[in-house]
């Protein structure tokens, strides 16, 4: 670039910062004191305009209570690309391979972009002709300056406290001096250095001046002022700048929100130097008089200015001079000019006129530094309300990357605005490290068929293996069969009429198992509508006790239990005896294949080299209410032994089916409230949200689900989603707008809402594992039968055959186990 600096002065000449006066407060050359607040922001994606107006009014109430006249505000939005991914280590071959390939989705430098929000609060001498404080300080005694310093620091502390309280829903924190390995570093200094160099570097706290220690780059401005360069030890970056030239007559909350999704790296800077009420009124009255004297036909404007004056007099409105610039980074001059042109059009879409900073480029660059008031280009007076419309602190929420109850995030998705979104089952405090805490983690996934529900469940289950999590899965249509085998778990397919290999009466006679045997017998005896009387309950208890005491373990079962339940003579019309009611469950009965098997082969012990992941396919029994309820009762009982404090996920696919049974309803009514105490998670999914909402325990499941995931559903009913699942009108519209094949979904955790997408474009082989079905499961079982159950050996062969089957090149033979 044919360039040269406009003034051969060191960068330190333009840096106003002197030193830290406290850990959080910095003094500058002009008797001004500053504190920098980093704000995570608040998602307005699913908020109505009414909600946003309420948020703005709450912030405005805070701003009105600050010391106007002394107060200065600088805001910065730093848009930058990031390469972030949760820390992950996996023992399973498939989980490790998938994580590596999925991570590659985000390896592109431009794959993910975040917006970081900063608010710098300053207290400065009042530039007011009536009060004359600034002038008095120029010739003030040391005592006068000391008094001003003390007063200003207290004013600034009070302002920061009030602002932090007002931003309590925005996750704000004050930057300060921090200790790193025994050395002190300045976080505000690191932010100021970034504004100077475009790079983040540590800034040690020394006994020197910040204006000397902060510069680490040389800005170079074009002879003609069009573009500039930042030259650092790591290289050179070009930049251009736009300035706000004119705004529309009316701005709304979040007026710049759409700008923040632009695909560039940038720094948006705004400043607002507040006026005292007297100065504000004088300025507005002067402007009103000019309008009236010009004979301009603007009665509406004059009337509006009268209202502004009234609001200033009552303290309902503040006024200050405002400026705004946008610095855009580019790799070369041509692409940078295109980026600036595109941004100019994006601002125009919002009714904002921006112009390139050309010969004022240098001034615009230095004006980015908070408290560099004299370098600002084109400051104009705006109201405090308009300031907040242009600085609403809206942002795309990113979830919680670390410090969750199970540690790092389960996985990461890309949000629809290109930002990373760290997903967790658990809902925990954003700013607190809650590792090891037992917080609510229940999750409900709702999605229409074909929208990726099974794939999403599989991805989450696989990624959760970084925690070594145990999993109990109630599956349908063998959707997760191949995945369970790939994770070296065990999968049990229940076939209608075929022996299950279950024999609950051969369990060890512990108090819990004995209680379950009594409960199971009573349940089976009442399946046809009969009630179990008190006397019959005692008979059952006695029969179970005698079975355990008198019958050898290998001979125990319903067929031997019946000998302790005599078949009494009955009068016509009397309720059938327990004996007769249990006959269908005997070995030679209609349902004898369910529980009256020779031995109990349901072994939840984990063989060496395998993992505690247990899948049960219930597809064939879901329509048989007698078998379905009894089967889920047994699975729940056996799996309870695994809830011993370890991390455990209970995944129930198409949960509307098991929830038809009263015992399962009662079980879930308790589990949704107590599972977290056992370090567990309940993850429900369904294609039928109405069935969940109408279920007797549906409201409890919905209320206790800290995480709700809504996949596309073109048949979504407004009443169900809004009344039963608690979505706002805007949130419901987000769900309705999702394309069926978009692989996007809405994640709602408390009041936070994000629209994310699952991009598996770099994981085509894993998709064949996640997209389970009976025919894919048959291929996997055939391959395992041929080469063994080590996924490192059978997965490549499975992928090859599955791809051929998908193309119709190879017939698939269903194999039963």
Q: Could you provide a short overview of the structure?
A:
This protein has about 800 residues and is of the alpha+beta class.
Tell me what the structure shows:
- With 817 residues, the chain is an alpha+beta fold.
- It has four domains: 11-84 and 102-275 and 318-390, no CATH class; 434-499 and 605-759, P-loop containing nucleotide triphosphate hydrolases (Rossmann fold, 3-Layer(aba) Sandwich), CATH 3.40.50; 506-592; 773-817.
- Helices cover 36% and strands 19% of the residues.
- The chain has 27 helices and 26 strands.
- α14 packs across α15 (534-550) and α14 packs antiparallel against α19 (625-640).
- The longest helix is centred in the N-terminal third of the chain and has 25 residues, at 142-166.
